[in-house]
Amino acid sequence: MKLPRVLTLVLAGGEGNRMGALTEKRAKPALRFGGVYSLIDFPLSNCAHSGLENIWVVEQFQAHSLNHHLANGRPWDLDRTYGGLQILPPQQGERESDWHQGNADALWRNRRFLAEFGADLILVLSADAVYRFDYRDAIQSHLERGAHVTMVTAQVEKEEASRFGNVKITPKGRVTKFEYKPENPISRDVTCEIFVYDAKILLQTLDELAKRTGNPPEEAELGDFGDELLPELVASGKAFAHPIGGYWRDVGTVESYFEAHQDWLQSVPPFELDDPQWPIWSHFKPRSSARFEGEGYALNSLISPGCRIAGEVKNSILSPGVVVEAGARVDEAILLGDVTVKSGVMVRRAVVDENQTVKKSVDGGEKITVIGG
Question: What does CATH list as the number for 6-263?
Answer without folding.
Answer: 3.90.550.10
